[in-house]
Design brief:
By secondary structure, the protein is of the alpha/beta class. Helix content is 40%, strand content 14%. It catalyses: carbamoyl phosphate + L-aspartate = N-carbamoyl-L-aspartate + phosphate + H(+).
């Protein structure tokens, strides 16, 4: 498959061909994951280390399950009680890990650019599981797979991304990916939760939910990230839901067959009405969770293939181009 990156640090450096390669392989893993026997030996003999400096039960569990189904030896490092808490620098941590000779390193960190720094210091493949407000590439890829399966294509769709855009790395990764695939992207948020300069990405910006949702094919809600807020970004959760929470009245402005998405965890009654979230005819939120495991399997499989090829060339003295 046409996938050449050594690491997955973000969507920004992926080509449309790279994206299609991940999604096409992920389709195969969707089928595998629905079988009684869900194991393969794609990563047999390889070691995967999950380093989560920020807590994330959903993403970490998804990566762990993906690695084990691929046959890797998976280790979860508890960064909340690690040497980092005792004053060790990120670079020292990277050098220590490198000495253990892992093959795949999955990292979530609260600082933008931290995962890229780690990738420069280790010899294994690195996957960004979310860094600060920068990117969350596997979330965008699993969202893309969910959309493609639901709508039959991943281009020339109108996608509305609604909510806390300012603090969302999910929004940034999706904005980049959907733009690469020639979609019309709308961002909907109160002015306090809309980052400055976002229109430079070629998207449309709205502060009115109904106008932004008009004739949308996909409605992607975002979590209100209070842990990243240091001030009064919204007057109250009740007022926020009234203006920007997704309910049946607002969803009626989208197309009749529009799908509803949310990266989770959801705040019901704040970002989305529970009835909409559970509507099997509109909501694909549970499908997103299922696609997450398959996409992460595909990403690790493709990176492992490139890593093996690189190591093979190193043994024969060839140069990687």
């Amino acid at each position: 498959m046409a996938f050449r990156p050594r690491h997955l640090l973000g969507i920004e450096h992926l080509s449309p061909e790279d994206i299609h390669s991940v999604l096409d392989l992920a389709e195969q893993y969707v089928e595998l994951n629905r079988r009684t026997v869900k194991k393969t030996d794609a990563l047999a003999g390889m070691t995967q280390i999950n380093m989560f400096f920020e807590n994330s039960t959903r993403t970490q569990s998804s990566f762990e399950l993906a690695g084990k189904r691929l046959g890797a030896d998976v280790m979860n490092m508890s960064m909340q009680t690690s040497s980092v808490k005792k004053g060790e620098t990120l670079i020292d941590t990277a050098l220590t890990l490198n000495a253990m000779h892992p093959d795949l390193l999955v990292v979530r960190h609260g600082s933008s650019g931290a995962v890229d720094l780690l990738a420069q210091k280790v010899e294994c493949a690195v996957i960004n599981a979310g860094d600060g407000k920068h990117e969350h590439p596997t979330q965008a890829l699993l969202d893309a797979l969910t959309i493609r399966r639901a709508k039959g294509r991943l281009h020339r769709l109108t996608v509305a991304i609604c909510g806390d855009v300012a603090h969302s790395r999910v929004a940034r990764s999706n904005l980049i990916l959907l733009g690469k695939m020639e979609n019309r992207v709308r961002l909907i948020a109160p002015p306090t939760l809309m980052p400055s300069g976002v229109a430079e990405f070629g998207c449309e910006v709205y502060d009115d939910m109904r106008a932004g949702l008009k004739d949308a094919d996909v409605v992607m809600m975002l979590r209100l990230q209070r842990e990243r807020m240091d001030g009064g970004f919204i007057p109250s959760e009740r007022e926020y839901f009234h203006r920007y929470g997704l309910d049946a009245e607002k969803l009626a402005f989208a197309k009749d067959d529009a799908i509803v998405m949310h990266p989770g965890p959801m705040n019901r009654g704040v970002e989305i009405d529970g009835t909409i979230a559970d509507d099997i005819n509109r909501s694909v939120i549970q499908e997103q969770v299922e696609m997450g495991v398959a996409v992460r399997m595909a990403v690790m499989d493709l990176l492992a293939r490139n890593l093996r090829a690189e190591r093979g060339r190193a043994l024969t003295g060839e140069t990687y181009v």
